[in-house]
Amino acid sequence: MQDLEGKVAFVTGGGSGVALGQAKVLAEEAQMKVVIADIRQDHLDEAMGYFSQKNVAVHPVRLDLTDRAAYAAAVDEAEQVFGPVDLLCNTAGVSQFGPIEKATFDDWDWQMDVNVNGVINGVMTVMPRMIERGQGGHILITASMSAFVALPTTGIYCTTKYAVRGLAESLRVEMPKYNIGVSLLCPGGVNTNIHRSVEARPEKYGNTGYYGRDEAVFAGLKRVIEHGFDPVDLGRVVLDAVRNDRFWVLPYPEFAEGQKARDQEVIDAMMSYADHPDYARRMKIREQMKRDMPGSD
After folding, report:
1. For residues 130 and 25, what is the distance between their CA atoms, to the nearest angstrom?
2. Of 204, 236, 240, 268, which is most buried, counting CB atoms within 10 Å of its CB?
3. Helix crossing, 155-174 with 118-133: angle to 10°?
4. How do the domains of the chain map onto residue ranges?
5. Cβ(9)–Cβ(26) under 8 Å?
6. Handedness of CA 188, 191, 193, 196 (dihedral sign)
């Protein structure tokens, strides 16, 4: 999607953080028409206070992205205001950390519903419309470096991010026939307010084994991310990836050595079975199948 001017982007979580950075770049620098969807009205109001001072086309919509009917209605509204969605940015996410043995089912359900089901709802709402329209498009899924790295206290969050990484990689192999590009953004530290996401945790997920609105906890979490990427700078990385149809969006070289070590550990584990008799049996069958294929002579 080289020519983005005038095209429509739908950005979840667009009232703040990483998603707001994406919305600013898409609207101001790519001149796209941008719908920002967010569960928090105060975040939408603050964002629109910013955009109202700019000569851009931005439309806010209140959305609980775990509500599938509401999601469909939000995309309907986007189409009525700006037209069909060309770029879907599945960016909204929440986090809450703690020892996995202290987690409640509500702790699991909240992060799974937002971080996984919310992304599924976005893809399964917008993707069929893109396919039916037949004009291509692009889908961005924002995961995390936690889609690669498991650390203590991040068990639930890590599980959600591994899941949407799998979804993104699956879309990558299935969408080219529809001319729909796919990008997977995996941020490390970003200077946002995600550490306060529990403030928007619905009451239906009220039973927690972790912290609530605790300013001391928030301050500690903020110290971890405050020196990370600026959201607008990260939005520019996303814009470049969309324009150049780049799948892996991993602007954190500091994770490379750890990833090499994990990759090698996996390869070593695979190769430790190289002498297993069933490996030889499978390879013999595979070679025979190749010889039996038409045109193999």
Report:
1. 23
2. 236
3. 10
4. 8-257
5. yes
6. positive
- pLDDT tens-digit profile of 217-248? 888 877 887 888 899 999 999 999 999 999 99
Helix (H, G, I), strand (E, B) or coil at 9: strand
Q: Give the integer Cα–Cα distance in Å for 11 and 150.
A: 27
pLDDT (tens digit per residue) in 18-73: 999 999 999 999 999 999 999 999 999 999 999 999 999 999 999 999 999 999 99
Query: How would you class 203 by CB atoms within 10 Å of its CB: exposed for 0-12, middle for 13-18, buried for 19 or more?
Result: exposed
Q: Using an 8 Å Cβ cutoff, are 109 and 151 in contact? A: no
Q: Quick one: tokens of 18?
A: 């990483």
231 close to 26: Cβ distance less than 8 angstroms: no
- AA letter at 287: E
Q: Pick the catalytic residue: 157, 162, 178, 205?
A: 157
Q: Is residue 71 annotated as a catalytic residue, yes or no?
A: no
Tell me how far apart the terminal alpha carbons of the chain are, to the nearest angstrom: 42
How many Cβ atoms from other residues are within 10 Å of residue 158's Cβ? Answer: 21
Dihedral in degrees, nearest 10, Cα atoms 231, 234, 238, 239: 80
What distance in Å separates the CA atoms of residue 100 and residue 42, rounded to the nearest whole number?
32
Strand duo 137-142 + 87-90: pairing: parallel
Predicted TM-score of the model (pTM): 0.93
Task: Using alpha carbons, select from 35, 41, 209, 177 the residue that is nearest to residue 110.
Answer: 209
Name residue 9's amino acid.
A
Q: Is 112 helix (H, G, I), strand (E, B) or coil?
A: helix
Alpha-carbon gap, residue 274 to 19, rounded angstroms: 46
Q: Which residues are annotated as a binding site for NADH?
A: 16, 18, 43, 64-65
Instruction: Please determine, looking at this structure, whether the domain spanning 8-257 carries the CATH number 3.40.50.720.
Output: yes
